Amino acid sequence: MPSTRCFAPSVLLTCLMLTGCSPTALGSSAPSGSASGAPGPSGAAGATRAIAAGAGPQKQYTVQKQPTAGTCHYRYEKGEPLEDPTCTPGAVSPAVTQSNLKSTICRKGGYTSGIRPSTYVTGKEKKLNAASYGYTGPIGDAEYDHLISLQLGGDPNDYRNLWVEPADPGHQKGVGVNNLKDPVETKLHTAVCKGTVTLAAAQQAIITDWTTALSRLGLG
After folding, report:
1. Is 160 exposed, middle or buried (CB count within 10 Å of its CB: 0-12, 13-18, 19+)?
2. Which of 116, 136, 147, 212 has the fewest CB atoms within 10 Å, i.e. the most exposed one?
């Protein structure tokens, strides 16, 4: 039997009745990659999105190419700086999973010190990333931050997981790095290692909005 096709809005109702055509069939399909529960602009609680996997820990790191200068833009929540999710969406290390926490991020004696890139590598990347974000403040007061921290299984040197994080509001220039995101990461790490929250939940919370990560997970 020849198939019936939909050609114009004027025959939409007839088309739907005869062939079961839907608005999606007429070209109004959902954006590629969208899924039920995908986060909206506000990052609603319970929303999740896929996080890319980086290369993981390397014996020797190389300087990674950064986004084009001036293409990344900070966001702010109550004065606190947040990353540009387009430039810095986050990336996880494939070496850290929920099943091997005790031998990786939760192991006694620490985990992160042995997988960090050298300051030679990160120093060069930091300057390039500062240009990406248009950061012009004192470079020593800004942290070259892992969006998903190493203690939460973030990738050590994937450009998608690193950004120049400006100092907090009221920070005195010239006194070095002191960001409120750091204690949030530590509390999330403790919760993951205690089994209070899953690794995936902690990672999702931090990429959505680090300023609300603890409250989203009922940790404070």
Report:
1. buried
2. 136
Segment 194-213 shows an average pLDDT of 97
Gap between the Cα atoms of 206 and 216, Å rounded: 10
Question: In what helix (H) or strand (E) does residue 126 lie, and over which residues does it extend?
Answer: helix 119-133
Reduced to 3 states (helix: H, G, I; strand: E, B; else coil), residue 163 is strand
134, 70 Cβ separation under 8 angstroms: yes
Q: Measure the CA–CA gap between 75 and 80, rounded to whole angstroms.
A: 8
The lowest-confidence range among 27-31, 43-47, 209-213 is: 27-31
Strands 75-77 and 80-82 turn out to be antiparallel
How large a percentage of the chain has pLDDT more than 90?
68
In 177-219, DSSP assigns E strands to none
